[in-house]
Every structure is written in C-alpha cells, then in structure tokens.
C-alpha cells in the first residue's frame, strides 16, 4: 500500500490519434448531412464506452442506423478502430517499460468494447503495466471519481502515492479530487521529467494531503 505508482491514460498519451476525418468521409460516401453519424450513433458509442453493449450489437446497430450492408459495416468498423488506435507513442512507451520493477504501473482509460484485445495485440499494453482499468469493463468513465478509485484498488496503492497522467484537463482535476497527484500530458519531455520527480520523491506518508 505504500508503493510509488504511475498510472497513465492511453489515447493522447500512450497512443497518438490525430483527427483522421473518417466519419466525415463516410457521411460524404453515404450522402448524409455533416454530423449525422454521431447523431444516430451517439447512444451506441456511449454504451460501448461503458460495456453495456457487445461488439456484435455495435455492428448490428451500425447496420440498422446507417443502412449499411455487412461488408460496409466491416469497413466502417475498420476505419473506426484505425482512428481509435492511432499510432504508439514509442518514446514514452519505451520510458515506461524501463520503469518496471521500480514502481507500480497501471493504465486507466476511457475505452470502447473490444479495445483490450486490439491494444494487447498491437501495442502489448498488457505487458507494459501491471493492471489496465478500462471504462468498458468497469462501467465507469473518467472523470467519475470511482474510475480513479478502481485504478488505485487494482494496484493496491494509496491515491496520494500515485501520479496520474492524462491529456484532458478535467480528468486531471478529477484525479486530484480523488487524492492523486496528476500531470497534464503535453509532450514526452515534460512528462518524463514529472515522472522522474515523482519517483525521486518516493511514497508519501499515509494521510498526508498531496499538493495540487
């Protein structure tokens, strides 16, 4: 419980996923007004992010709501996953890999049903850290404080001994509200410096309030 811990987000931190415009391309292809796909699929995307729908059901809803045949559904979902998975942030991943054994390591990610299998296959995040907490598996998304509590519980660490790294400011604020230390990811250099400082400081005394 007194171990020093680093917990990272995936999208925008360990994965770099710039806007690809894939949705707009599908809307043009299907001759749909701009914004139609997200309007029709919003509740499905939400359900997928908290695991209340299966991948098969996602495919069925894509077909029904967008009027797509099976081959089109497969192509649509392939584009979705290509956008979702982005490319690996190799520099940061290599740095985190070098931390193994010196601190507890975890991931806390707002995700989509099917993400674990694909990210394990492509990027081996399951080998990079000890625990991965996905929103679609626990049914809770950041910035809900319960997501951060789940991440700490999965690693059996105190929040005040954890440094959480995310690229979204509201998630940083929520992590701090949950008692964690937190760093807003902007680039690898500053993030590595912040992690190093966290590890140098070591575990904090129980009950001590971390700085904002």
UniProtKB/TrEMBL annotation:
Taxonomy, superkingdom: Bacteria
SUPFAM superfamilies: HAD-like (SSF56784)
Name of protein: Hydrolase of the HAD superfamily
InterPro entries, per the entry: HAD-like_sf (IPR036412), HAD-SF_hydro_IA (IPR006439), HAD_sf (IPR023214), PGP-like_dom2 (IPR023198)
């Amino acid at each position: 419980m007194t171990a020093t811990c680093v917990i990272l987000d995936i999208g925008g931190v360990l994965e770099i996923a710039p806007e690809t415009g894939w949705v707009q391309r599908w809307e043009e292809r299907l001759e749909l007004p701009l914004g139609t796909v997200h309007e029709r699929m919003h509740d499905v995307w939400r359900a997928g992010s908290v695991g209340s729908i299966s991948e098969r059901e996602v495919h069925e809803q894509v077909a029904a709501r967008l009027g797509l045949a099976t081959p089109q559904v497969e192509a649509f979902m392939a584009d979705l996953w290509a956008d979702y998975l982005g490319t690996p942030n190799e520099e940061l991943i290599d740095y985190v890999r070098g931390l193994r054994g010196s601190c507890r390591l975890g991931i806390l990610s707002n995700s989509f049903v099917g993400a674990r299998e694909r990210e394990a296959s492509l990027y081996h995040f399951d080998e990079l850290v000890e625990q991965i907490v996905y929103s679609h598996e626990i049914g809770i998304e950041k910035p809900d404080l319960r997501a951060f509590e789940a991440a700490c519980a999965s690693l059996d660490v105190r929040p005040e001994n954890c440094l959480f790294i995310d690229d979204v400011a509201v998630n940083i604020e929520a992590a701090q509200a949950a008692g964690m230390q937190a760093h807003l990811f902007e680039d690898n250099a500053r993030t590595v410096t912040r992690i190093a400082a966290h590890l140098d400081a070591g575990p904090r005394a129980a009950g001590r309030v971390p700085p904002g």
